[in-house]
Amino acid sequence: MTSDPTTSNDSSARANSFPWPPVLYVGAIVAAFALDWALPIAWPGIDDTAARLLGYSFGIASIVLVVWAIVELRRANTTVMPDGISSTLVTTGPYSYFRNPIYLGEVLLLFCAAEITKNVWFVIVAFVFAALVTVLQILPEERHLTARFGEAYEKYRSRTRRWI
Q: Taking the model in full, what pTM does it have?
């Protein structure tokens, strides 16, 4: 973890001034249900124990990943909010494996929802969510972290994957 002693409250110190990830996530859930109602697609999978266990495993992995990531952010005394100001570069816990474990966890939870509801649209919106959160949040966040933490972030970025 690397701290930035020059933390300020001005909006230029933020990756974003709008909380895109939670808005996109709720939008993805609403879209999956609305699309299933308007344009239902038959579930292509087999409804057996193995498939259910895989889907539930995505859900469990999602919850563990998101909670673990939030705990690491809190321990570092930095923001959990995507429109907040990063005061510390967190590279421990799940951040030592993925640069965006919370967003990855959210995608996994959408996959779990697909299995639970047998709604194919959850799988589709999971990929749309991932693409949109990358463009609207992750790329600006990477620029923000590069400006804020410089070489420390570049080293971290070179050894840690954005998604998986």
A: 0.89
